[in-house]
Inverse folding.
């Protein structure tokens, strides 16, 4: 019995991943590029690596994670939606309401399960499924994980430079699940860190309370992610 | 954790290739990063994480209940192109599942890097911190074990 790597010797997945991440030396990267130029299978592997992936949110330390067993298809759909939504971007410019300084975590436990926020950033066609920064021209999509038992509306609010703003026209009623995309996408501008939050509750009451009292009004019914300017 | 956004997609692809189950792959990768987060250690590099994910996947496969579940529901398409073969046959999850009980963990780990991840002998030696000769010896032992199993019937896809 003999081991038969098919000629040419394949570029390993690890090497291709590191090439994609820009972690190879110039010599190694050139070698990979030569293989890409001549071998369709290597190109197919790199195409696979370039396909976007949505990640399950990590808990805020030191909390303990719960296992999410959601549909992978749903998460792929969420990323596709993020890209498609690029045509209908809400520009985050408004400034209303006071800011509460206690930032809620990325995920909280509620009756029936956990609620978690994750962001997807599109920058010049490249998708980042766990962004921590923003720059001019970036477009963001909010994904919400929530248990089916959670009724009511959801809203997105951005806190920045001592003020709260709502990038979308109105709260939305969502069918809960894993990484459910909030309709629409938005940009973030300015030189200060931005805290992007999802709040939930009765739609008619969501915005008024946050406008008046900041996140203190949504204590226990909000999850947030922070973005720093580049 | 920046390492999560940077490396988790690569690790998810690797775990899916090995397990054939997107949900189990996600559990493995997410669990790894949750553990790293709680240890609050400096972020490791991709080869280290590749090894950690490999061992977590193999732990899952070694468990008989999980193994049966994975074999029943795995999606062969998640394997992607099979580029490294033995006698022109692929090492499938089915064959791997038959080998894990008869080989020691280091041999099975070597097998995964070679036939699921297409790592060269040098790359395997680097990842596992052993000599190239050791890798060669382990792969010979793997080949013998496959012969012992009658791999001609178990090889499956090509």
């Amino acid at each position: 019995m003999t081991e038969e790597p098919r000629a040419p010797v394949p570029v390993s997945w690890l090497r291709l991943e590191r090439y994609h991440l820009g972690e190879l030396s110039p010599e190694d990267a050139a070698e990979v590029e030569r293989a890409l130029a001549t071998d369709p299978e290597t190109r197919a592997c790199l195409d696979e690596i370039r396909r976007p992936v949505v990640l399950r949110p990590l808990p805020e330390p030191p909390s303990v994670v719960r296992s999410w067993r959601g549909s992978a298809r749903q998460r792929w759909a969420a990323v596709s939606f993020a890209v498609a939504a690029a045509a209908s971007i809400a520009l985050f410019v408004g400034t209303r309401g006071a800011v509460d300084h206690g930032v809620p975590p990325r995920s909280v436990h509620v009756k029936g399960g956990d609620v978690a926020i994750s962001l997807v950033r599109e920058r010049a066609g490249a998708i980042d499924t766990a962004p921590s920064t923003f720059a001019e021209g970036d477009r963001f999509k909010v994904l919400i994980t929530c248990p089916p038992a959670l009724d009511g509306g959801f809203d997105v609010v951005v806190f920045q430079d001592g003020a709260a703003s709502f990038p979308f026209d109105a709260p939305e009623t969502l069918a809960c699940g894993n990484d459910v995309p909030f309709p629409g996408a938005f940009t973030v501008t300015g030189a200060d860190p931005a805290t992007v939050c999802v709040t939930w509750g009765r739609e008619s009451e969501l915005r008024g309370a946050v406008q008046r009292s900041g996140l203190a009004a949504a204590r226990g019914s909000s999850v947030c992610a922070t973005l720093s300017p580049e | 954790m920046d390492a999560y956004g940077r490396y988790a997609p690569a690790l998810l692809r690797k775990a899916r290739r090995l397990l054939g189950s997107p949900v189990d792959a996600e559990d493995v990768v997410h669990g790894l990063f949750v553990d790293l987060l709680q240890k609050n250690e400096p972020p490791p590099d991709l080869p280290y994480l590749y090894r950690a994910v490999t061992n977590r996947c193999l732990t899952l496969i070694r468990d008989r209940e999980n193994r049966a579940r994975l074999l029943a529901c795995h999606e062969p398409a998640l394997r992607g192109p099979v580029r490294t073969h033995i006698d022109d046959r692929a090492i499938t999850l089915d064959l791997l599942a038959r080998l894990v009980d008869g080989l020691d963990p280091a041999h099975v780990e070597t097998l995964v890097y070679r036939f699921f991840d297409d790592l060269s002998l040098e790359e395997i030696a680097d990842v596992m911190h052993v000599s190239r000769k050791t890798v060669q010896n382990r792969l010979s032992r793997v080949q013998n074990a496959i012969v012992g199993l009658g791999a001609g019937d178990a090889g499956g896809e090509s």
Observations:
- Chain B has a mean pLDDT of 88.
- Strands of chain B lie at 84-86.
